[in-house]
Amino acid sequence: MSEPAAPLDDEATPGAGSTYSQSLERGLAILSAFRSGRPLLGVSELGRDIGLSRSTTHRYVATLAALGYLQQDPSTKKYRLGPRVLDLGFSAINSMELREVAAPHLRELSDETGYTVNMAILDGLDIVYVERSRSSREGQREIDLNLHVGSRLPAYCTSLGKVLLAFLDDGDQKVALARIDFARRGPNTLTSRATFALELKRVREDGFAINNEELAYGLRSIAAPILGHDGLAVAAINLAVHSSMVSMEDLVARLSPTLRAAAADISARLGHRP
């Protein structure tokens, strides 16, 4: 006699093997539907996003809410990510070998230059800050923008994001470029797709990216990639300064060699060989 079929909710995806859980896949798909630009989503929206009926989606959402992975907004009745997701995110960030390897280099770079040093990774079209070494230098706090480990920003208007996009492989970069929704964030934000593509080409050739008030007024930064063994960027580090402190020319001429040397040291610790 043949064994009974598995319940629909745990039906294995063809080719994925008998240990594949479709229920887990659906739950994770619901959590992944939330983005920085879409912090609140209703059951119907979630169902459309992941291709499930409203009743099935509601069952998953109710379970995730009961476990603390989602929270319902009292006024709109829509859902947002809950504290358990943050716990997982910070646990992942804190367990990264990358942070352990990079942290002393970031502190040394901040001490040597007197400026705040940041490290971020690429997540879709956003950057996520995974490490910071803050400077107490006068005027530095004005450009910190309340950023912290776990903060997200659009990649296209940050020096960190430019580096991470520039060092994607050609296919992934093309897909990312097509998906970016360019909007003006600072006085000098690049909002032309063609101009931004040329900027990424320059970043790849030069090995570093600059940002001159593209994210916010008064904020300048310079970033360099942390490369893995395959030559692609696994992260990026930058120095952030106020425009009143350093000219763009001085930022590139005086600070880029120090920044790039620190990035190269971290890359070498991660197995990159030029």
Please explain how this structure is put together:
With 274 residues, this protein is of the alpha+beta class. Helix content is 42%, strand content 18%. It is built from nine helices and eight strands. Strands 5-4-3-8-7-6 form a six-stranded antiparallel beta sheet, with helices on both faces. Strands 1-2 form a two-stranded antiparallel sheet. Strand 6 and strand 7 form a beta hairpin. The longest helix is centred in the last third of the chain and has 22 residues. The protein is elongated, with a radius of gyration of 21 Å. The N terminus is likely disordered.
Give me the secondary-structure topology.
Layout: H1 22-32, H2 43-50, H3 54-66, E1 70-72, E2 79-81, H4 83-94, H5 97-113, E3 116-123, E4 126-133, E5 152-154, H6 159-166, H7 170-179, H8 193-206, E6 209-212, E7 219-227, E8 233-242, H9 248-269
Antiparallel strand pairs: 1-2, 3-4, 3-8, 4-5, 6-7, 7-8
Helix pairs in contact: 1-3, 2-3, 5-9, 6-8
Looking at the structure, what is the overall shape? elongated
Strand order of the largest sheet: 5-4-3-8-7-6
Q: What is the number of E strands?
A: 8
Sheet-strand content, in percent, reads 15-25%
Give the CA-CA distance, first to last residue. Answer: 61 Å
Structural class: alpha+beta
Element string (H = helix, E = strand): HHHEEHHEEEHHHEEEH
Short description:
By secondary structure, this protein is of the alpha+beta class. It is 42% helix and 18% strand.
Task: Give a quick set of tags describing it.
single chain; 274 residues; alpha+beta; six-stranded antiparallel β-sheet; 9 helices; 8 strands; 18% strand
